[in-house]
Amino acid sequence: MPASLTSTFTNRILQGAAASLIVLAVAGCSTTKDRMTTGSVPKLTKPVEEMDATELRSATDRLGQAYEKNPRDPVTGVSYANLLRMNGRDTQALAVMQQVAISNPADRNVLAAYGKAQAAAGQFQQALDTIGRAQTPDRPDWKLISAEGAILDQMGRASDARQRYRDALEIQPNEPSILSNLGMSYVLTGDLRTAETYLRSAASQPTADSRVRQNLALVVGLQGHFPEAEQIARRELSPQQADANVAYLRGMLSQQNSWQKLAAKDKTPGAAEASNTN
Q1: How far apart are CA 72 and CA 100, in angstroms?
Q2: Helix pair 269-276, 192-203: axis angle to 10 deg
């Protein structure tokens, strides 16, 4: 798969894993919309995933001011680092989490978020080590296990990544964020049919959110079924957001050489065998 496509797909996998890590600081499950309402952390007027670029920058500035006032507060630090990453400021997010981790060295939530920031900055092995320290062997956290899978996918270790997703599913059966990550793992290796199977299963779960359905739209579109992909992409989103996602899908499909390589790989015996193992 071309490097540009791999980067795009990998980022989407990490976006799915992000909910599993961020949630440790803001409460709820990985499929709830991220609302930062704890303590002195500024409240957001809408879910992060529904913000446009201007709203996202404004929210980041407000959280940045709260962080400057209390840089040791774990909830503020984790929330601020999350928004920085969503603005593409991965290096700054990592620096924030380094400082928060120094102040809270035994906080599982902080360690988990620190590992996420390391992964976003390309420090994959360090991220695995950090998340490993956050895990409790006698009470394993499925969110951390799924995040490990996302990092392993970034490292090109698809087989190990998928095993971690399956381990997470044993703890949290039918969790849509895990199923979505597992499906996107197959996208990375060009097995679109298996990817679609997992993503349709993820999207069918009652707790699935729009991020899961956007991943499904991507995979359906990559297989040449653009009308259905567009229909999926437009659900639950504002017209502006839907247009942006549809434009993204069209851009992906316009890369004919990339799509032809994916399609050819999807039809290889190896891909078919992978589909039959699940």
Answers
A1: 6
A2: 30
The amino acid that residue 96 corresponds to is: V
3-class DSSP assignment, residue 116: helix
Contact by Cβ (8 Å): 180, 198: yes
- Average confidence (pLDDT) over 74-86: 92
Residue 246 near residue 228, CB atoms below 8 Å: no
User: To which residue do tokens 């899961």 refer?
Assistant: 212
Rg, the chain, Cα only: 18
Name which residue leads in pLDDT, 31 or 147: 147
Residues 6+ apart with CB under 8 A from 62: 42
Q: How far is CA 272 from CA 24, 54, 108, 277, in A?
A: 37, 44, 40, 9
Contact call for residues 184 and 16 (beta carbons, < 8 A): yes
pLDDT at 25 over 50: no
Element (H, E) at 214: helix 210-222
DSSP 44: P
More confident residue, 228 or 45: 228
Proportion of the chain above pLDDT 90, given as a percent? 49
Q: Quick count: other Cβ atoms within 10 Å of Cβ 41?
A: 23
The DSSP line for 223-253 is TT-HHHHHHHHTTTS-HHHHHHHHHHHHHHH
Two structure tokens written together for 9: 């797909």
Rounded CA-CA distance 168/151 in Å is: 14
pTM above 0.90, yes or no: no
